[in-house]
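Researcher: I'd like a structural prediction for the single chain below. Treat it as a standalone chain; there are no partners to consider.
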Amino acid sequence: MTPEECQIETLKHIFKVRSKIEFFCRDLIDRMLDHDDSKLQDPELEHFTRLTPKLKHSTYMSDEYKGFLELLKPALDHHYKNNRHHPEHFPEGVNNMTLVDIIEMLCDWAAACGRHADGNLYQSILKNQLRFGLSAQLTQILINTAADMEGMSVIDYAKKHSVK
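Model: Treating it as a single chain, here is the predicted structure.
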C-alpha cells in the first residue's frame, strides 16, 4: 500500500465515523427541541402546575418528595409513557434504553437538580443507581460525564458534591 492509498483508506474511515457521530448529533438535537413537550399540555400541565412549586422545596427521594410523586402519579404515568428518556418508559428500565436516551436522562437529572434548593447531581446519580438498578459501570460513566459537564476532574467533582 502506498502512503496515498493509506490516506484514502483512512479518509474513508474518518468519513464513516463522522457519519455515525452525525446520527447521534441529529438525534440529540431532536431530543433537545422536543424535551418534555408533554408537560406543556394536559393531563400533565394541570398536575405539574399544582405540584412543581412544592417539589422545589423538597429533597430528592425524601419521604416528602415521594409523597408528591404519588400525587403526580396520573401525570407521571402519562409523562413516562410519552418520554423515552425515563427508565419508567421501558419494561426493563435502563436496560432497554439507548445511549441517546441515557444522555437525555442525565441532562434531565442535571436540570432537575437546579429546581431544588439542595439539588446535587452527584448525589442524584447515586440515589438513582439504587432506584433504577444501575450498574456500577454505568453509574461511574454518569459521574464521569457530570464531572466533565462541570469542567472538573472526577476526583474533584466527587469531593465537591459528596455529602459531608
